[in-house]
Amino acid sequence: MNIxxxxxxxxxxxxxxxxxxxxxxxxxxxxxxxxxxDVVGSEEIKKILFPDRDFTVLAVRGEWFSVHPxxxxxxxxxxxxxxxxxxxxYDLAFISxxxxxLLITLIDNNHNFHRLAKYYKSEFVCIQNGFRSHNCAKxxxxxxxxxxxxxxxxxxxxxxxxxxxxTFPIGSIRSSYFLKDIAPTLENKPTYDxxxxxxxxxxxxxxxxxxxxxGVRLLYEWTFILSDYIKRYLDGKNLRMVIAGRQRSTESxxxxxxxxxxxxxxxxxxxxxxxxLNSYRLSYxxxxxxxxxxxxxxxxxxxxxxxxxFPHPDEKNLAVDHSKSRFFKTQIGTFEEFExxxxxxxxxxxxxxxxxxxxxxxxxxMSNHLDTYKIIKSYVDKILDN
Length: 386
Known about the structure:
Number of helices: 16
Number of strands: 15
Structural class: alpha/beta
CATH topology of the largest domain: Rossmann fold
CATH architecture of the largest domain: 3-Layer(aba) Sandwich
Helix content: 40-55%
Strand content: 15-25%
Shape: globular
Strand order of the largest sheet: 3-2-5-6-8-10
């Protein structure tokens, strides 16, 4: 093998390590009273909570790594002297240089964030951004200040012995922002009869798609079944349906191909867009929202929308077992059961009747506070401005 081929082989084998090198920086972490943990969610925190407040972001998914000499020395101190694992040591070193009064994250299920509160004495605030499973709750020991969707989340953690500090069951930050700033600009009359919240998994339109995890397998199987049920249900009916896509515009080709096999060109798939909040707009403009067990389904329910949850009958991890309502206890198995439930929601039950059926349940799962994001902002401002 000549030198050129050897070099090419070396680069290919170590490609991921060379990719890391591209993300290294010598910049010293900027000192700040507010540190946002995770690049993911930081844009929403900026847009919704703190458009006029400066903060420092700690990247935790490899977007960049600081290799400033002082930070490296601190990493070695935490790793060698304190015997803390490397990932945690880096985070602690970064935080110790920023010296924040408060750390905040929109990724409430990040284990490292909760563990950091044991090592660094400051205020830690996490904002729930997604419906949490039973398995998720099992993996925590203690959670700092938590702004969560509803009492269901508090009960979920307590049932698994998780120590909770301050908890505020005040609903969804995105939902409150949408209702206050975007919904008033939309036409109040429904545009669509049905909005399907997609649970498409990247690549599942391909015949050789492999399923390994149990939870993914159930979602995978039921997505095919639900799509087939809806196709059969729409046949011969003059109903307009839209699909709120899961993938972003640049990655949505496979998702559109998947649904096209079922619905052809009769149903439009809109890609996910956090900036424009496509999925929220589509759900808001629909008479009925159909969801596997998505966060948006519970958010739409809190707005007063009719929602049909359609989890796999074997799905225990996302069980909404508190509920007594027939519209949460779906456990639909056959097409005939699905058809009956859809007919009831679309044609036989008024919105007021549905609201009466689910009133207690929906508040348990998702508090409907229009001022959720203002409550969080006020809490943080009070700490930072003292």
